């Protein structure tokens, strides 16, 4: 039990294991409202380092609690009304919105002007809000746009956070990041978070960071409760097998991952044709549309979310029981990032990968992570369904019917390991 004083009122914090982490009273009161039971491992390790003013590299996956790990100690250092002192850069609009909402909760008892800056929306309201901002959370492209317009002042930024840095590099933001960082005081504290550390991140650390501390978290997935399977299937039957798998899942939410926007849209539309409550999520949607889709999924108004990796990156979606890899990711890191949305907090989860011939190379890369236990299942009998693709130039719909003579099968010896 711990007692804190907030504006002359004595508050008792009960039932929370602070693990020795001490925050300012107004933030500890916010934690109380958020029903934290204890700090997660990454929060316990990162918060004291950030409070001490050290640069930091944190490697962790979605769901580990990293937003609070950098949010609370950085927001503590912001003095309201003194200009932009904290800049958080993220790769996607969805993550920007998510981080902003969390920051607003964290600062419930300290009036702080937190401004969300992304593309896809009108820029004039952003210019108005930036004039009074204490904290800015934004995507690199729109932040750079404001810098070029002279509508954002980063000259007194005390702390820079790069969240999901590896994804920003993957999306081609490296030049934008270098331009933005060059406009921030060299003495500012710099914090970098991601799931992996590609070479581009190493260049950032070498050029801009001051002897950073490194914190690496284990995968935030309870592997004892996570069932990972794959089916070998020809591509013409992928959708039919997907429908069969969904029909076996009577409870919980499902996320289906596709590798392209076009794939996301096609799978989503065909699910709708089969009576499944589905929505698509990818970078080609408007910000309002993407927000409404995410909110509907959180509210369990949908059965299935069909998503691209980029759009879903960093989203903390709870109560996901099934992940389906309709297309296999290109790396084991991306696979782990996908599956990290299920089997959390003691709950059970399942991952099913649909492995067609064009997925073989990617699957080999996934299996380079020797800790992944992915078991092959015998492909069940299922109803063959037509997969309706966009119209051909002739104007006729393209029905991708099932065909005999699928791709050459991998034997168990190729994808199975001796345990």
Q: What features would you describe in this structure?
A:
It is a single chain. The chain has 419 residues and is α/β, with parallel strands linked by helices. The protein has helices at 25-33, 41-51, 66-76, 93-106, 124-130, 140-149, 165-170, 174-181, 199-208, 238-248, 261-273, 287-298, 309-312, 332-339, 360-366, 412-415, and strands at 2-6, 9-13, 56-59, 86-89, 114-117, 135-138, 159-162, 189-194, 213-216, 226-232, 253-257, 278-281, 304-307, 320-325, 349-355, 375-376, 387-389, 398-400. The longest helix has 14 residues, at 93-106.
What structural class do you assign from the helix and strand content?
Answer: alpha/beta
Alpha carbon gyration radius? 23 Å
User: Alpha-carbon distance between the termini?
Assistant: 46 Å
Largest sheet features: 7 strands, parallel
* Widest sheet: strand ordering: 5-6-4-7-8-3-9
Specify the helix fraction band. Answer: 25-40%
Which regions have little confidence, pLDDT < 50, spanning 5+ residues?
1-14, 399-419
Number of helices: 16
């Amino acid at each position: 039990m711990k007692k804190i004083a907030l504006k002359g009122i004595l508050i008792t914090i009960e039932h929370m294991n602070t693990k020795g982490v001490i925050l300012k009273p107004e933030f500890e009161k916010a934690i109380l409202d958020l029903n934290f039971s204890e700090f997660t491992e990454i929060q316990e390790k990162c918060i004291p380092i950030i409070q001490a003013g050290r640069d930091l590299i944190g490697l962790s996956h979605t769901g580990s609690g990293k937003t609070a790990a950098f949010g609370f100690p950085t927001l503590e250092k912001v003095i309201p009304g003194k200009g932009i002192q904290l800049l958080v850069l993220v790769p996607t609009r969805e993550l920007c919105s998510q981080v902003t909402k969390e920051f607003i909760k964290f600062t419930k008892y300290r009036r702080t002007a937190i401004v969300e800056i992304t593309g896809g929306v009108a820029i004039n309201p952003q210019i108005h809000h930036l004039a009074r901002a204490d904290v800015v959370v934004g995507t690199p492209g729109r932040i750079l746009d404001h810098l070029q317009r002279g509508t954002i002042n980063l000259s007194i930024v005390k702390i820079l956070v790069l969240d999901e840095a590896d994804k920003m590099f993957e999306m081609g933001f490296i030049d934008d990041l270098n331009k933005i960082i060059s406009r921030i005081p060299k003495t500012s504290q710099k914090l970098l978070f991601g799931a992996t550390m590609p070479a581009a991140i190493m260049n950032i650390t070498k050029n801009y960071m001051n002897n950073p501390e490194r914190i690496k978290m284990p995968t935030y997935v309870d592997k004892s409760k996570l069932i990972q399977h794959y089916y070998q299937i020809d591509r013409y039957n992928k959708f039919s097998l997907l429908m069969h798998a969904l029909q076996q899942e009577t409870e919980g939410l499902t996320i289906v991952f596709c590798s392209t926007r076009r794939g996301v849209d096609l799978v989503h539309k065909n699910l709708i044709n089969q009576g499944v409550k589905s929505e698509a999520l990818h970078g080609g949607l408007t910000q309002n549309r993407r927000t409404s889709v995410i909110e509907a999924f959180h509210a369990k108004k949908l059965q299935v979310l069909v998503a691209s990796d980029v759009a879903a990156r960093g989203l903390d979606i709870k109560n996901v029981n099934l992940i389906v890899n309709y297309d296999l990711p290109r790396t084991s890191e991306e696979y782990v990032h996908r599956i990290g949305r299920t089997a959390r907090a003691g709950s059970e989860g399942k991952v099913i990968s649909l492995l067609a011939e064009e997925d073989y190379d990617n699957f080999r890369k996934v299996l380079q992570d020797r800790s992944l236990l992915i078991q092959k299942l015998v492909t069940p009998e299922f109803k063959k369904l037509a997969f309706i693709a966009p119209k051909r130039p002739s104007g006729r719909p393209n029905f991708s019917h099932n065909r005999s003579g699928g791709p050459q099968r991998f034997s168990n010896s190729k994808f199975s390991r001796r345990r």
